[in-house]
Amino acid sequence: YAASTAQTRAAAAALAAADAAAARAVKTGENERLSAESAEAAAWARWRPLAVRIGTQREIERRIAAAQSRADMLNAQLSWWKSYEGRLGDARRGILYTAAPGTLGAADRPFGLSTFWDWVFALFALSGLLSALWALLLRARLARTRA
User: Fold this and answer.
1) The pLDDT of residue 116
2) How much is the mean pLDDT over the chain?
3) How many helices (H) and strands (E) does the chain have?
């Protein structure tokens, strides 16, 4: 019995020592975690304003690019309207607009059908074809009724 009591006391002392070592390890781990959390909070406090500034700058750059794109589009429209105004002024003065060579309706492409008279001619030709077809259909119907 005395030997077993001594062994139990030795085991209890070993367990107490192991428990104390484990408690110290847990406390050390907890302290390391707390120091890591505080270091992370400090780093976040330093870097967050920079992150906000970078995000804001990217948004500003995106808006500037969108505004620049809109300005380019409006400049292109303004250029077109100025050209159109010039052609209207030329038409008032009796100057006819001629297309650039190689474009639709230019002299080197007479069948481009881009001017008013080209369209009039095309419609006249189509109406002539339709009236001829109508006349043929009427003659065929009359021939059937007489037969």
Assistant:
1) 72
2) 86
3) 2, 0
The continuous run of DSSP H or E covering 96 comes out as none
| Predicted confidence (pLDDT) per residue in 114-139, tens digit | 567 777 888 999 999 999 999 999 99
Assign 3 to helix, strand or coil.
Answer: helix
Cβ 113 vs Cβ 122: under 8 Å: yes
Which whole number is the average pLDDT over 1-6? 78
What Å distances lie between residue 68 and 26, 62, 65, 71, 78, CA to CA?
Answer: 60, 10, 5, 5, 15
**Which residues have CB under 8 Å from 115's CB, separation 6+?**
105
Are the beta carbons of 106 and 98 closer than 8 angstroms? yes
What 3-state DSSP class applies to 136? helix
Q: What is the residue whose two structure tokens read 């009591």?
A: 5
Q: Record the pTM.
A: 0.41
Could you tell me which of 123, 99, 124 has the C-alpha nearest to residue 112? 99
- The answer to whether the beta carbons of residues 100 and 91 sit under 8 Å apart is no
**Is residue 115 within 8 Å of 105, Cβ to Cβ?**
yes
